[in-house]
From TrEMBL:
This is SAM-dependent methyltransferase. Residues 10-113 form the C-methyltransferase domain. GO terms for molecular function: methyltransferase activity. It comes from Campylobacter jejuni. It comes from the Bacteria. Keywords: Methyltransferase, Transferase. One of its GO terms (biological process) is methylation. Transmembrane segments: none annotated.
């Protein structure tokens, strides 16, 4: 079977998606502006993408992930160590960005149960803290 790509209703570039993405990055940078010590929760594609696009990636001090195979490793192209999410590792953090949208509610509940009291920034539907 051979398929002609010109007959597919497929866009290689969608300006609306690009514009929305840029707007969300701008919102995230605005939210992060006043923080100095931030963590990312989630070391998958979403977490690795965030450090690529934010204005001040040096503000990201830690990354959390429940996957013990990832703990002790680094986020891609960074010196950010992936750690277990626990009260000891929450020390000095001002905000945590949730970069695991499918598990956002469970992660928020778990962070609060483990004693994290500072800001949580969610990314599932829209950026908010």
């Amino acid at each position: 079977n051979i398929c002609d790509i010109n007959k597919l209703n497929f866009k290689l570039f969608d300006k609306n998606i690009y514009t929305l993405f840029q707007e969300n990055i701008r919102k995230l940078n605005n939210l992060l502006h006043d923080y100095k010590n931030i963590a990312i929760y989630g070391s998958g594609a979403h977490g690795n993408t965030i450090i690529t696009f934010i204005d001040n990636p040096e503000k990201i001090k830690k990354c959390f992930d429940l996957d013990v195979r990832k703990q002790g490793m680094y986020l891609q192209n960074s010196s950010i160590i992936i750690q277990e999410p626990n009260i000891k590792n929450f020390k000095d953090l001002e905000a945590i960005i949730i970069a695991a949208p499918l598990y956002e509610k469970e992660i928020i509940r778990s962070l609060r149960e483990k004693g994290y009291k500072e800001d949580i920034i969610t990314t599932e539907k829209e950026l908010k803290k």
